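Incident log, support desk, overnight shift.

02:14 A customer reports that sequence design results differ from what the structure should imply. Their input is reproduced verbatim below. On-call engineer (initials T.W.) acknowledged and began investigating.
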């Protein structure tokens, strides 16, 4: 008896699948900002304008560079005797280096290296935040590092939206 209903079940499944896929395509077709898809859209929106993922990623990296320099300066003021701030200061400097490399990779359109350097910067920020969490400290350096980590995470996501453009070699 159950075998008699199989064609109806298959047909229903196919129809529901088509309806679901069509509905998803309609949702994706609507223009939505790039930031709505990031983990922290409230940090992304002020930095990203338009719908070009390459420009958005560059904007995020530039903002990260500026904010990281400020955080390094702030951490340098408080490194005296505080092991966590000292660790964070070193990791922020590492993040700054990785952001420069990420920006250079973006310019050269080397998307894989871009993502690697952004991942390293986000990891540097994470190490900084974890140093404070483990010691149960909360201060301006930790708060800045946490915001940088979240913004870096957004930038890493946006970098995955960049399409690879491969140049074709001309034949003789």
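02:41 Re-run completed on a clean worker. Output:
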């Amino acid at each position: 008896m159950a075998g008699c209903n199989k064609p109806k079940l298959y047909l229903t499944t196919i129809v529901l699948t088509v309806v679901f896929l069509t509905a998803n395509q309609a949702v994706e077709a609507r223009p939505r900002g790039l930031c709505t898809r990031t983990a922290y859209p409230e940090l992304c929106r002020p930095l990203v304008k338009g719908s070009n993922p390459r420009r958005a990623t560059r904007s995020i990296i530039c903002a990260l560079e500026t904010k990281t320099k400020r955080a390094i300066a702030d951490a340098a003021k408080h490194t005296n005797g505080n092991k966590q701030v000292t660790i964070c200061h070193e990791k922020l400097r590492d993040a700054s280096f990785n952001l420069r490399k990420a920006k250079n990779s973006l310019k050269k359109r080397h998307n894989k290296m871009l993502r690697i350097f952004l991942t390293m910067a986000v990891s540097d920020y994470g190490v900084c935040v974890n140093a404070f969490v483990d010691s149960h400290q909360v201060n301006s350096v930790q708060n800045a590092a946490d915001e940088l980590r979240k913004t870096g995470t957004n930038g890493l996501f946006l970098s995955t939206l960049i399409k690879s453009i491969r140049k074709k070699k001309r034949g003789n």
